[in-house]
């Protein structure tokens, strides 16, 4: 098995859910994560995806700082999850039920490189 990161992106100007909709979305996330845990594909020991806040900063090679989130981008990274999968196809299959897709977001799936020194 290999580790993959699923990065959740959303339209930063998209519609905001009502409290009832938000509660339903949280339930979908809980159910999806529980399914991943039961199948042995969930890596995070706290059994939850990791949400990212709205505060951030980027430092470039010259030392210039930029504050975030960035007004010039349409999407923002809302969070991530690390899963175990046989290969990229299997990781993609695991992502098919991701609640982020149900609210118009995307899931970027990337393998996590392992360096054997």
Mean pLDDT: 85
* Amino-to-carboxy terminus distance: 20 Å
> How many separate domains?
1
For the record, what is the CATH homologous superfamily label? Answer: Dimeric alpha+beta barrel
> How many individual β-strands?
6
The description of the largest β-sheet is: 4 strands, antiparallel
Low-confidence runs of at least 5 consecutive residues:
none
State the oligomer.
single chain
**What is the top-level CATH class?**
Alpha Beta
Characterization of this structure:
The chain has 117 residues and is α+β, with helices and mostly antiparallel strands. The protein has a single domain (2-53, 74-111), classed as Dimeric alpha+beta barrel (Alpha-Beta Plaits). It is 27% helix and 32% strand. The protein is built from three helices and six strands; from the N terminus they run βαββββααβ. It has helices spanning 19-38, 88-95, 99-102; strands at residues 2-11, 50-51, 56-59, 65-68, 75-85, 106-111. The strands form two sheets. The protein has a four-stranded antiparallel β-sheet with strand order 2-5-1-6. A two-stranded antiparallel sheet has the order 3-4. The longest helix is centred in the N-terminal third of the chain and has 20 residues, at 19-38. The protein starts with a strand and ends in a 6-residue tail after the last strand.
């Amino acid at each position: 098995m290999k580790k993959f990161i699923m990065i959740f992106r959303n339209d930063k100007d998209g519609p905001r859910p009502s409290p009832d909709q938000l509660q339903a979305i949280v339930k979908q996330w809980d159910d999806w994560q529980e399914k991943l845990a039961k199948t042995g594909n969930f890596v995070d020991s706290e059994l939850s995806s990791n949400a990212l806040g709205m505060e951030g900063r980027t430092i470039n090679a010259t030392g210039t700082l930029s504050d975030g989130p960035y007004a010039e981008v349409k999407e923002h990274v809302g969070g991530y999850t690390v899963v175990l999968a046989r290969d990229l196809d299997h990781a993609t299959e695991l992502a098919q039920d991701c609640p982020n897709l149900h609210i118009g977001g995307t899931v970027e799936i990337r393998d996590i490189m392992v360096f054997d020194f």
